[in-house]
Design goal:
Elements (H helix, E strand, L loop, with lengths): L12 H8 L2 E4 L4 E3 L2 E3 L2 E4 L2 E3 L2 E3 L2 E4 L4 E2 L3 E8 L2 E2 L3 E9 L4 E2 L3 E8 L4 E2 L3 E3 L13
């Protein structure tokens, strides 16, 4: 177990997680009031009442909710977003998703049944902000 013993540098799972910012999970039944920010990935199964900024991905599960703006490299939406989405590379709107706001991204996929109630602008964006964009 990595927590109990030293592993050679560069080979541990912890080193791999730090390289991409890691994974943060907001579990079902959890409500966060305030902004969430990470260089890695955020998976939301609960609710966030604030903005979400992730350097890699924002993943919203079916039944989840974000009441705020989402900024990331890639967003996969299966729940409800009440705010805008800015994704540097790609947005996927799944069949269970509802987006109440504008989307700005380079590429988008909208599954049958997915709802977008807002504008769509397809262009290159620095979605996560200069401090989180990986070059």
């Amino acid at each position: 177990m990595a927590l109990l013993r030293d592993e050679p540098k560069g080979n541990s799972r912890a080193d791999l997680r730090r390289a991409d910012g890691g994974l943060s999970i907001i579990a079902s039944g959890t409500v966060i009031t305030g902004d969430v920010r990470t260089e890695g990935t955020v998976k939301v199964e609960g609710e966030i009442l604030g903005n979400v900024q992730a350097g890699q991905q924002v993943l919203l599960a079916r039944g989840s909710r974000v009441r705020g703006d989402v900024q990331t490299r890639e967003a996969v939406i299966g729940g409800l977003v009440e705010g805008s989405i800015r994704a540097g590379e790609r947005v996927e709107i799944q069949a269970t998703a509802i987006v109440q706001g504008d989307i700005t991204t380079q590429r988008i996929v909208i599954a049958e049944g997915g709802q977008v109630n807002g504008g769509l602008e397809m262009k290159k964006v620095s979605a996560a902000g200069p401090e989180l964009v990986k070059q």
